[in-house]
Design goal:
The protein is an all-alpha fold. It folds into two domains: 61 residues, Homeodomain-like (Arc Repressor Mutant, subunit A, Orthogonal Bundle); 151 residues, Tetracycline Repressor, domain 2 (Orthogonal Bundle), CATH 1.10.357. 74% of the residues lie in helices and 0% in strands. The longest helix is centred in the N-terminal third of the chain and has 33 residues. It is globular and about 60 Å long. The N terminus is likely disordered.
């Protein structure tokens, strides 16, 4: 029998724990970190929108999220990294929501109009986020670069991929494909954020204008845009 002080058995009680218990512990730590990251991102968005980016401190963000301030530096490497993560999270979530919430339109016109409408309403719902993002992009070149990478590359690519399913769109010249893909986001920004939020224009009137312009843009495609491709 081995005495309590014996070192002949190299295993400790921790070594004898089932491997799946360690896996469970690792999974729990990952879930805890994800939850804390989301809490910090949500708290940062509210404070940035309400007080401004410069006036908000990491201590205030941590307090609002009920997390240790050191986690901001550990997870995001400071306030700047937190804003970058906020931008990337927002647009990745937007692309995921786009695929989940919108079924393909029956023809190119129906698809294009529903994408523009969705973007206009999305910009309106996330006006706090865009208030922070747009103001910082003018004075912070790294943020402007992140914005170009996420908005132009990620969002426009997702929209182009949807529109490419329509044969009349896929047959268009490359520049026209790019222009129409970019137009969805541009109309969303102008008529979902700038005109109703910044200029105080009636929200529903702004949305109707966006839809009218969308229809006008599709006239360049021709009558093929109204030919049903999906039931």
């Amino acid at each position: 029998m081995i005495s309590i002080g014996s070192t002949s058995d190299p295993k400790t009680p921790a070594d004898r724990r089932p491997r799946h218990r360690n896996d469970i512990d690792r999974g729990k730590r990952k879930r805890d970190r994800s939850a804390k990251e989301r809490s910090l991102l949500q708290a940062a968005l509210k404070l940035f929108a309400g007080k401004g980016y410069e006036a908000t401190t990491t201590r205030e963000i941590a307090s609002a999220a009920r997390c240790a301030e050191g986690l901001i530096h550990r997870y995001f490497r400071g306030k700047g990294g937190l804003l970058t993560a906020l931008i990337e999270y927002h647009f990745s979530q937007e692309v995921a929501d786009l695929g989940r919430e919108l079924q393909p339109g029956r023809n190119l016109q129906a698809e294009f109009i529903q994408l523009v409408t969705w973007e206009v309403e999305r910009f309106w719902k996330t006006q706090d986020f865009h208030k922070v993002l747009i103001s910082r992009s003018f004075v912070d070149p790294p943020i402007a670069e992140v914005m170009r990478g996420t908005v132009i590359s990620v969002r426009a690519h997702a929209i182009r991929e949807r529109l490419q399913h329509y044969s009349c769109f896929a047959a268009l010249p490359r520049e026209q494909v790019q222009a129409l893909s970019q137009a969805v986001g541009i109309l969303g920004l102008m008529f979902g954020f700038m005109r109703p939020f910044v200029l105080g224009e009636d929200r529903m009137h702004a949305k109707r204008l966006a839809i009218t312009i969308a229809k006008m843009l599709l006239q360049s495609v021709g009558p093929e845009a109204m030919v049903d491709q999906f039931s």
